[in-house]
Structures are given as C-alpha cells and as structure tokens.
Amino acid sequence: MLLSSPQLLFLSTLLLGTILSISSSSWFGAWVGLELNLLSFIPLISSKNNQYSSESALKYFLIQALGSSIIILSASFFLMSLSSASLFLVASLLLKAGAAPFHFWFPSVMEGLNWPQAITLMTVQKIAPMSLISYTISYSSSFLMTGSILLSALVGAIGGLNQTFLRKIMAYSSINHMSWMLSAIMLSESSWMVYFMIYSIVSSSLAFLFYSHQSFHISHIMNHSSHSQTVKILTFISLLSLGGLPPFTGFIAKWFIIQELAFNQMFITLLVLLSSALLTLFYYLRIAMTSMMLSSPKSKWMKSNKFNSSFITPFLIFINSAGIFTPSIIALII
C-alpha cells in the first residue's frame, strides 16, 4: 500500500485547503485554506526513515507561518487604505511559493524531503499561492512581480550550476520555472494554467524516475543506470523535456509564453528568461550526459525493483515526447 490511512487523510485535507484557497470569495477564506494546506503538509513531510525530514518540516513551518503573518499584516493595511497593502500581500504569496528573492528556504527544504513529498512541494503547493497572486496583480505590485521574475530566472539558472544533489537541482529548476509562470500570470490566467500543468507533468515524471531508482546524487544515476539502456534514454528525454528543448513536451509551454511576451513587446524579460533557460539546460545536459555516457560497475546489486518498466516506461516516454506530435495536432485543428 503506497499511502497509510493518516497520510491519505492529510493528503485529502491538503487538497481541500488548496481548493478552499482558490475558490474562496474572501481573503479570510483564502487564508484559512492556506493554513489548512500548511498544517496538512507538515505531517506528510515527517518521516521516520529520513533523518533530515524534521529539519525540513520545521523550516517549512516557520517560513509559511511568516508568510501567513504578512498576509494578516497586509489585511490590516487594507483596512487602513494604505497603498503598500497589495505590495505586502504579493510579497507574502511569493514567499509561500518560493519565488526569488524569497527563495532562500526552498532548496534547503527540498534537500531533506523524500521524492514523493518533493513532487508535492514543487507542484501542488504552488497552486494556491500562485492562484492568489493572479487575483491580486495591480499596478502597485507590478514592479515587485517584474523584479521577482528576473531574479527567479537568474537565481534558478545560476544556483543549479554547482549542485550535485538531484533534489537541490530540481529545487533551483523549480525556481527558474517560477519566473516563467509569473510571466504567464502577468500575461493571462489561461497561459499560467497551461504552463503549470505541463511543468507539473514533466517535473513529476522526472522526479518519479529518480524515486523509482532511489537516486539523490548525480553519481547515483551513473550507478543505477549502468545496466539499463531504457532508463538511460528515459532520463535523457525527461531532462531535455524539463529544460524546454524542442521538440519535447516542456517546450510547448515555453513556446506559448515566448509568443505572448514578444507580442506584448516585453523583450527584456524575454531575453533574461531565454538566457536563463540556456543555463538550466546546461546542468540538465550534465546529468543527461552522465546517465547516457558513463557507467559504473559498482553497486549493480543495489538496483531498486520499484521501477515497473513494462507499463511506466512507455507512459513516461509518451509524456515527455508528446511535443513532437504537437505541430501535427495543431495543423489538424487549423
């Protein structure tokens, strides 16, 4: 059984908190949903098998509690009709989502999580804060949003260059993708939803691949994929797809954002995003080439049996290669 009864209960309340936040008609309801989401995620993080999970749970709780207190502070500013109220509100939501310059907690929390919890933190836990950001964008907060977009792109690209731990690499990758999602939020709500959906599918497939082989370091990929050509190819495709290299699935979302940014003449933002995407592609390629080109005779007996290649392999290849068929689908639709 993958989930115990308490885990299933907390996962249900986590999703309930997310739904409550994005569907609430008042900021009090949104705040309650965020708190329910936080209190549900803390028990899911804690694990007896992981000695670093308690540290990550404490860090996550303190940061999210700080974000919640800033939301309450901004609510009092709204009551006083202060112009900085929306600025504080957006800053607190950026802190909760892990966007730069409020990203400092995200890699350290990711480092202490198991892969299933890391997938949740990279995907589900971003839905509520980013949905609320899309509701609160105003002229006064647009400067903060633009600064966060540029900083997230640079921090996510540069921060991952000297990392060898896969969870930290995925954390900085998530920060970089945050810049694209924030850009999509400033363009339109539908653009953000499309990008987030594609990013969640691609990043979850790669994290699931790492989880299946219990890989936490670049050297683990070299050891565990030394005897399986299928796993090598699958890791290679998944990483290039996450990097947004055409014609893989990850490029579809970036393609839409590039078109929208160019149409709205946001060329400086587009230049920074594309430059950062090239840097992230570099450290994706470093992992991909490690898995493809190198092999180690050591630790072959440690291969995990969690990976059911008969069903999972074609599914993951289809997810990450679906972008190849997109031009044909678009041509048929048109």
TrEMBL record:
<keyword id="KW-0249">Electron transport</keyword>
<dbReference type="InterPro" id="IPR001750">
    <property type="entry name" value="ND/Mrp_TM"/>
</dbReference>
<dbReference type="GO" id="GO:0006120">
    <property type="term" value="P:mitochondrial electron transport, NADH to ubiquinone"/>
</dbReference>
<keyword id="KW-0813">Transport</keyword>
<comment type="function">
    <text>Core subunit of the mitochondrial membrane respiratory chain NADH dehydrogenase (Complex I) that is believed to belong to the minimal assembly required for catalysis. Complex I functions in the transfer of electrons from NADH to the respiratory chain. The immediate electron acceptor for the enzyme is believed to be ubiquinone.</text>
</comment>
<keyword id="KW-0679">Respiratory chain</keyword>
<comment type="similarity">
    <text>Belongs to the complex I subunit 2 family.</text>
</comment>
<dbReference type="GO" id="GO:0005743">
    <property type="term" value="C:mitochondrial inner membrane"/>
</dbReference>
<comment type="function">
    <text>Core subunit of the mitochondrial membrane respiratory chain NADH dehydrogenase (Complex I) which catalyzes electron transfer from NADH through the respiratory chain, using ubiquinone as an electron acceptor. Essential for the catalytic activity and assembly of complex I.</text>
</comment>
<feature type="transmembrane region" description="Helical">
    <location>
        <begin position="85"/>
        <end position="106"/>
    </location>
</feature>
<keyword id="KW-0999">Mitochondrion inner membrane</keyword>
<feature type="transmembrane region" description="Helical">
    <location>
        <begin position="233"/>
        <end position="257"/>
    </location>
</feature>
<dbReference type="InterPro" id="IPR050175">
    <property type="entry name" value="Complex_I_Subunit_2"/>
</dbReference>
<dbReference type="Pfam" id="PF00361">
    <property type="entry name" value="Proton_antipo_M"/>
</dbReference>
<feature type="transmembrane region" description="Helical">
    <location>
        <begin position="57"/>
        <end position="79"/>
    </location>
</feature>
<feature type="transmembrane region" description="Helical">
    <location>
        <begin position="193"/>
        <end position="212"/>
    </location>
</feature>
<keyword id="KW-0830">Ubiquinone</keyword>
<keyword id="KW-0496">Mitochondrion</keyword>
<keyword id="KW-1133">Transmembrane helix</keyword>
<feature type="domain" description="NADH:quinone oxidoreductase/Mrp antiporter transmembrane">
    <location>
        <begin position="84"/>
        <end position="279"/>
    </location>
</feature>
<keyword id="KW-1278">Translocase</keyword>
<protein>
    <recommendedName>
        <fullName>NADH-ubiquinone oxidoreductase chain 2</fullName>
        <ecNumber>7.1.1.2</ecNumber>
    </recommendedName>
</protein>
<feature type="transmembrane region" description="Helical">
    <location>
        <begin position="263"/>
        <end position="286"/>
    </location>
</feature>
<feature type="transmembrane region" description="Helical">
    <location>
        <begin position="143"/>
        <end position="162"/>
    </location>
</feature>
<keyword id="KW-0472">Membrane</keyword>
<feature type="transmembrane region" description="Helical">
    <location>
        <begin position="307"/>
        <end position="333"/>
    </location>
</feature>
<keyword id="KW-0812">Transmembrane</keyword>
<dbReference type="GO" id="GO:0008137">
    <property type="term" value="F:NADH dehydrogenase (ubiquinone) activity"/>
</dbReference>
<keyword id="KW-0520">NAD</keyword>
<dbReference type="InterPro" id="IPR003917">
    <property type="entry name" value="NADH_UbQ_OxRdtase_chain2"/>
</dbReference>
<feature type="domain" description="NADH:quinone oxidoreductase/Mrp antiporter transmembrane">
    <location>
        <begin position="24"/>
        <end position="80"/>
    </location>
</feature>
